[in-house]
Design brief:
The structure holds two protein chains of two kinds. Chain A has 13 helices and no strands. In chain A, 39% of the residues are buried. The two termini of chain A are 24 Å apart. In chain A, α3 crosses α4 (82-117) and α6 (138-149) crosses α7 (153-180). The longest helix of chain A is centred in the middle third of the chain and has 36 residues, at 82-117. The radius of gyration of chain A is 23 Å and the shape is globular. Chain A has helices spanning 6-12, 16-25, 28-50, 82-117, 120-135, 138-149, 153-180, 183-190, 195-206, 208-231, 243-247, 253-258, 261-288. Chain B contains eleven helices and twelve strands. Chain B has helices at 49-57, 89-95, 117-129, 133-146, 152-156, 165-177, 195-212, 223-229, 247-252, 257-265, 271-278, and strands at 7-18, 21-33, 38-42, 65-75, 81-83, 100-103, 183-187, 215-220, 232-237, 240-246, 320-321, 327-328. In chain B, the strands form two sheets. An eight-stranded mixed beta sheet of chain B has the order 6-7-8-3-9-10-12-11, sandwiched between helices. Chain B has a four-stranded antiparallel beta sheet with strand order 2-1-4-5. In chain B, α3 packs parallel to α6 and α4 (133-146) crosses α6 (165-177). The radius of gyration of chain B is 21 Å and the shape is globular. The chains are: A mainly alpha, B alpha/beta. Chain A binds chain B through residues 1-2, 9, 12-16, 119-120, 182-184, 186-194, 197, 201-202, 205-206, 208, 288-291, 294, and chain B through 57, 59, 62-63, 93-98, 101-102, 104-106, 109-116, 119, 123-124, 127-128, 150-151, 153-154, 157-159, 161-162, 172, 175-176.
Chain lengths: 295, 336
């Protein structure tokens, strides 16, 4: 019992958070994701401090100007600065994505929890509702919701979060049903644990892999949904910028062929961000699972 | 016995509703556990021993199982005696873990994999006793030391998968003892462990019980374990207690043929090779345990009992005192 190697003694004496960070930082892809995402976030948040143009300033002497020393990333057809619009669009797109994913995670987890702990009748009722929500054709559902909710940031968030929770609630329900029968949950009940305690101390941490994977995939999805909605004129309405409605400038063949910078930068930002978030999510999932030390 | 028992179960019946029919898993169970005493509940799989322990704590599967009859008087740490069968869910939840703790069979899976061992032991202390994080963490380390885990500070910061099976069972015992319960229910706590670790865990439980004056209800199917740890034993068959008494007496002079059969079926070291040489198989009890949904009339052991007479099938025999507080549910106990 006393003959442990110094290495195990050292690693085991660290707290859980330090060890989670250790697992995270040993994942190269996750660190790369973090290294891409953090600068993007810093730039997007701080751009008014270091960039002289604002997203809706019109410079009539510089229409469709290519990237250069004045407008680093060029200007669009009405002379607005692409860099400023890219930064502002990033704020909007990421806000919409993050907030809508957060909302759909809360809804999805709670619905899954109600279904799995509420007994047979509740479970059946809730799951049929989820089935119903899943069978609604997404595009039409989106259009109807969006036409009710209107355009703008808040309605777009509502529409996207209402569309995306059913899949999560199914996965959470399946996980919680399995967890409910696990010995440590039965043991916790034997120790006098209440239902909220079971749900949030045992259920939630053991579902974190599902939630993290879902969140990373869904953030990418939400950015794309937002782009689609904006394209149809139901998401973020111009002149407000978002990566989605900037990309839609490319629907004109002239822009597509001759003013490449007008759609390539938002497209690149979108791809880079989504990729970084996916890498990050992968690393987080492993970091939250103490057993991944063994591999 | 001047002190009132910690646990006093009277005529408890637990039923499961299966296919629209109520099936009694435990019938007419009367059992007491005195302070500082260990009572073993022995029986085959399906005899109702685990259901009994779940019934006491109100942990029966909702909607299917329920405690249909009887009373479960329990004297908690406060000295107040309450009938657990009549408590509402919230009051019962407060009793669990605080006044009555339970140790389960599988140490491998009865700890949550995502929390450190220390956190899991500290949790009931914080919740039931209202201690601060810091105090509870210190208590957890002390408890780990108490259950014989070397280097408890370091172990407290480890995750369950970093501990061996025996260590984990020690940790679950530490968790059960966290709030200093007056009754510990151990549901086959050594079954999943290998024999040397089994002996260590039994010694540990016996020591902790002695030090804390805690009562223990020990559920097992292992007669060797019973002999080692228990003061009294209750043998269950098809949902009923068929024999109960002090361990030494029951084992020396069983007054029920089921107990006798069980004791004879335990293989002894060196005996097996002798039996093999003689060409006789290990002794067994002929027949099989009857289905609970289709129990024979009268004594449920009668179909397998060589002593059975027609009177056995007429009515369920009552528990009869055979002297020295030993009770047997057999009408021909004097001839056994």
């Amino acid at each position: 019992m006393t003959a442990e190697t110094p290495a195990t003694v050292r690693s085991a004496s660290k707290g859980p958070w330090v060890r989670a960070w250790g697992r995270f930082s040993s994942n190269g892809a996750a660190l790369a994701g973090l290294a891409i995402l953090v600068p993007i976030l810093v730039l997007v948040i701080s751009y008014p401090l270091w960039w002289p143009y604002s997203p809706n300033d019109i410079d009539l002497r510089a229409l469709n100007q290519a990237p250069g020393p004045v407008h680093w990333l060029g200007t669009d057809g009405v002379g607005r600065d692409i860099l400023a619009r890219l930064m502002q669009g990033g704020r909007i797109s990421l806000t919409v994505a993050v907030v809508s994913v957060a909302i759909s995670i809360v809804i999805g987890f709670l619905v899954g929890a109600i279904a799995s702990f509420g007994g047979k009748v509740v479970d059946n009722g809730v799951m049929r509702l989820v089935d119903l929500a899943m069978t609604l054709p997404p595009v039409i559902f989106l259009l109807v919701l969006a036409s009710i909710a209107g355009t703008g940031v808040a309605p777009t968030i509502v529409v996207i979060s209402l569309l995306s929770w059913p899949v999560l609630s199914r996965m959470v329900r399946a996980r919680l049903l399995e967890l409910r029968e696990r010995d440590f949950v039965v043991a916790a009940r034997g120790m006098g644990a209440s239902l909220p305690h079971l749900l949030f101390r045992h259920g939630l941490p053991n579902s974190i892999d599902i939630l993290v994977v879902y969140a990373t995939l869904q953030i990418a999805n939400a950015i794309l949904l937002e782009a689609g909605l904006s394209f149809l004129g139901l998401g973020i309405a111009p002149p407000e910028a978002s990566w989605g409605n900037m990309l839609n400038a490319a629907r004109s063949t002239v822009v597509l062929e001759q003013y490449v910078w007008q759609w390539m930068f938002p497209g690149g930002a979108l791809v880079l961000t989504v990729l970084a978030i996916n890498f990050l999510g992968d690393g987080l999932r492993d970091a939250f699972d103490p057993r991944s030390d063994l591999n | 016995m001047t002190v009132a028992p910690v646990l006093d179960i009277r005529n408890m019946q637990t039923v499961f509703r299966i296919g629209g029919r109520d099936i009694a898993a435990v019938t007419d169970l009367t059992l007491t556990v005195e302070p500082g005493e260990t009572v073993a509940l022995v029986g085959e799989s399906g005899s109702g021993k685990s259901v009994t322990s779940l019934s006491i704590l109100g942990l029966l599967p909702k909607k299917v199982g329920r405690l249909a009859q009887g009373s479960v008087a329990f004297r908690g740490k406060s000295g107040e005696t309450r009938d657990l069968a009549k408590l509402d869910a919230e009051a019962l939840r407060r009793v669990r873990g605080n006044d009555i703790a339970m140790v389960f069979q599988e140490p491998m899976t009865s700890l949550n994999p995502v929390y450190t061992v220390g956190e899991q032991i500290a949790e009931p202390i914080r919740i039931h006793l209202g201690r601060s994080h810091r105090e509870a963490a210190a208590d957890a380390v002390r408890l780990l030391a108490d259950v014989g885990i070397p280097d408890p500070e370091r172990r407290a910061r480890q995750y369950p998968h970093e501990l061996s099976g025996g260590m984990r069972q020690r940790a679950t015992i530490a968790m059960a003892l966290a709030c200093n319960p007056s009754l510990l229910i151990a549901d086959e706590p050594t079954t999943a462990l290998d024999v040397t670790i089994q002996a260590q865990i039994l010694d540990l439980l016996a020591r902790l019980q002695r030090e804390r004056g805690m009562a223990m209800l020990f559920v097992t199917h292992n007669l060797g374990v019973v002999a080692e740890i228990a003061d009294r034993v209750a043998v269950m068959y098809a949902g009923r207690i068929v024999e109960t008494g002090r361990v030494a007496e029951v084992f020396a002079h069983p007054r029920h043929l089921y107990t006798k059969g069980l004791l004879r079926s335990v293989p002894r070291l060196g005996e097996a090779s002798a039996l093999k040489a003689a060409g006789t198989p290990l002794p067994t009890i002929a027949g099989a345990v009857p289905s609970l949904s289709n129990l024979p009339a009268g004594c449920s052991f009668a179909p397998r009992c060589p002593y059975a007479i027609s009177a056995c099938s007429a009515a369920v025999p009552p528990l009869t005192d055979t002297g020295d507080g030993q009770l047997s549910r057999c009408i021909r106990w004097q001839e056994i």
